[in-house]
Amino acid sequence: MNADVLIAGAGPTGLLLAYELGLAGVPALVLDQALHPDEQPRANGLVGRIALVLAHRGLLDGTSLHPLAAPRFPFGPLSLELDRLEVDPLHVLPIPQRDLEKLLHDAAIGVGATVRRGHEVVGFDEQDDGLTVRVHGPTGEYRLTARYLVGCDGGRSFVRKHAGIAFPGITSDEVARMARVHMPAAEVVVADGALAVRGVRLALVRPNRTATGSITITPHAMLDPSADPDVYILATSEPRPPHLPDTLTLEDLRASIHRVIGADLPITGARWLRSTVANSRQAETYRVGRVFLAGDAAHLFSAGGAALNAGLSDAVNLGWKLAVAVQGTADGLLDTYHAERHPAGRRAILHTRAQAALSSSGENAESLRELFAELLRYPGPSTHLAALLEGSDVSYGPGPLVGAWAPDTLDEHLAAVLVEPLRSGKAVVVDNTDDGRFAAMTGPWRERVDSVEIPGACLSALIRPDGYVAWADGAPGTLREALTKWFGTPRTPIRAAVPPGIAVRP
Ligand SMILES: Cc1cc2nc3c(=O)[nH]c(=O)nc-3n(C[C@H](O)[C@H](O)[C@H](O)COP(=O)(O)OP(=O)(O)OC[C@H]3O[C@@H](n4cnc5c(N)ncnc54)[C@H](O)[C@@H]3O)c2cc1C
Fold first, then answer.
1. Nearest CA to ligand 1 atom 1
2. What order do you get walking across the sheet with 91-94 strand by strand?
3. Which residues pair with 166 in a beta bridge?
4. Ligand 1, atom 9, residue with closest C-alpha
5. What domains, with CATH codes, occur in the chain?
6. Which of 294, 359, 409, 470 sits CB 3.0–4.6 Å from 76 for a disulfide?
7. In this predicted model, what pLDDT tens digit does every residue of 34-61 receive, in sequence order?
8. 317-341: b or e for each residue (b if 16 or more CB lie within 10 Å)?
9. 41-to-45, 99, 232, 425 alpha-carbon distances in Å
10. What does the pLDDT look like over 150-167, one tens digit per residue?
11. Ligand 1 within 6 A of 307 CB?
12. 460 lines ligand 1 (CB under 6 A)
């Protein structure tokens, strides 16, 4: 085999998956068709639980980045006022996608991954014990063999199409035209969360609806304090014309602004112009045999903020499971990827489509917005929607404890025990018995499962490498079952990569 796991796509999903695999001792091979990372600005940051997961993994160490509680957050055209709630239900990590990709690339390389750019996956066939993958590289076509192939190759995923996986959903009948535009300070007044210009007042950050469409304007400096204060991220939304040109010009954008607000803005220059039509789609299955999908290849959403949380969470769910399958036997384990992540994707489809409906035009949508705005004055609905955005409503088990994310669920004392395993990507058994009977059972899985004895702690639990509770307070037999279910029977010695700063126990 040329690689145990071959990943198509070196976007954020493929790179985080490569890191997760490397952490578990499986050096992945990542192929990307593009010679260089995409320079077009995309996401300005991460929203949701994945921000905490990256921090737990230690991936933000040595940077000035840390997850922040969002005081407010847009839900379609409305605003969730989260600082009025007792707990912080939603986290954000302000980092441009390009910087995130660099961080994940370096981390993946640091744990043994190989990234080849300019190498496009153009075909594959599955055999009993693996796959043969056809690749078009700079010097022509060649073949690789791998045990598993993961399509992290974006919304137009070749891997998804070649595997024959359907991608049902809807395509928006609106087009978004966006750019980073320069408007001189002398021409605009920014105050009280709004921008006033030439007799027009536009709320910042959230969509301003008019009879013909909507416009959203965000000062770039609000997302990146080092940015030019005269630069704004501007997006219009209008009905999609029958023929949409491939490229967006500044004249087209100006015309769109005029149609939406009935006035011109004093734009003196623009970069990164693009028009996009939103898709809301989800792959019918995330796995066919030895082929998996993750990230945009598996799901596309019709509102901002959800994609990276969902895609990177796919990677964190899949990485350690593939490592277990590569290193041992894992009957049924790989099927839990679809079983856990497909419903999570559905939840994101649910709230992003609801946001799109709230943002649409017409009198019905007007009433929907008015009613939603009334509901959002109560803490319950705001908390519920924030949990959807965070992804904290997702559970991987019957609950209330099994399937829950441990850092959210365990008391502070027990959560502190998780710091090291979460950084090293290992599972851990927390044992509250006086005789350490649960810890003693981890012997055969020692390479993958740590144990911590805390006699008298409020519970015993098995926490998976992704931080979710796999077993809690049962009989020893049920712990053995859980260890076998989640970690199989080791086949080869595991030499897990040690990320910088992790102390290795003798
Ligand atoms: C303008 C814009 C703003 C956005 N803002 C946000 C935001 O605020 N929050 C958010 O969460 N998301 C946002 N997104 C979405 C986010 O950028 C995507 O969800 C994210 O890039 C998906 O990551 P990915 O790794 O799954 O796929 P991609 O980033 O699309 O990476 C796929 C990679 O696969 C490679 N590839 C494709 N085909 C092949 C092949 N056959 N062989 C080898 N390689 C291949 C491509 O070259 C590419 O590098 C935004 C997107 C855009 C366009």
1. 42
2. 45-47, 91-94, 68-69
3. none
4. 305
5. 3-168+281-390 (3.50.50.60), 173-277 (3.30.70.2450), 406-490 (3.40.30.120)
6. 359
7. 999 988 889 989 999 999 999 999 999 9
8. bbbbbbbbbbbbebeebbebbbebb
9. 11, 10, 13, 30
10. 999 999 999 999 999 999
11. yes
12. no
Question: pLDDT by residue (tens digit) across 227-278?
Answer: 899 999 999 999 999 999 989 999 999 999 999 999 999 999 999 999 999 9
For atom 29 of ligand 1, which residue has the closest CA?
11
Strands 291-293 and 140-151: parallel
Ligand 1 atom closest to the Cα of residue 295 is 26
Q: How far is the CA of 315 from the centre of ligand 1 (A)?
A: 14
Torsion of CA 418, 422, 424, 428, to 10 degrees: 50
- Burial readout 183-218 (b: 16 or more C-beta within 10 A, e: otherwise): beeeebebeeebbebeeeebbbbbbbbbebbbbbbb
Read off the tokens for 61.
């160490």
Using CA atoms, how far residue 280 sits from 235, 302, 353, in Å, is 19, 5, 7
**Dihedrals phi, psi of 14, to nearest 5 degrees:** -65, -40
Helices (H), 276-411: 307-327, 335-359, 363-375, 379-390, 406-409
Beta bridge partners of 466: none
pLDDT of residue 336: 97
Q: Where are the beta strands (DSSP E) in 51-172?
A: 68-69, 72-75, 78-81, 91-94, 114-117, 120-126, 131-137, 140-151, 169-171
Phi and psi of 420, rounded to 5°?
A: -70, -45
Distance CA 402, CA 464 (A): 11
Whether 37 and 101 have beta carbons less than 8 Å apart is answered as yes
Which of 73, 97, 205, 222 has the most ligand 1 atoms within 8 A of CB, as the residue to mutate? 97
State in Å: Cα 139 to ligand 1 middle.
26
Q: Which residues of 357-388 are buried (b: 16+ CB within 10 A; e: fewer)?
A: bbbbbeeebeebbeebeeebeeeeebbebbbb
Contact 163, 215 (CB under 8 A): no
- CA-CA-CA-CA torsion sign (135, 137, 139, 145): negative
The minimum-distance atom of ligand 1 relative to the CA of 135 is 42
C-beta of residue 185 within 8 angstroms of C-beta of residue 230: yes
Six-digit token pair at 291? 């082929």
Cβ of residue 158 lying under 6 Å from some atom of ligand 1: yes
Residues near 475 by Cβ (< 8 Å), separated by ≥ 6? Answer: none
Handedness of CA 60, 64, 67, 72 (dihedral sign): negative
Q: What is the C-alpha to C-alpha distance for residues 108 and 19, in angstroms, rounded to an integer?
A: 4
For residue 189, the CA-to-ligand 1 centroid distance in Å is 35
State the helix-helix crossing angle for 97-110 and 12-23, rounded to 10 degrees: 30
Q: Ligand 1 within 6 A of 13 CB? A: yes
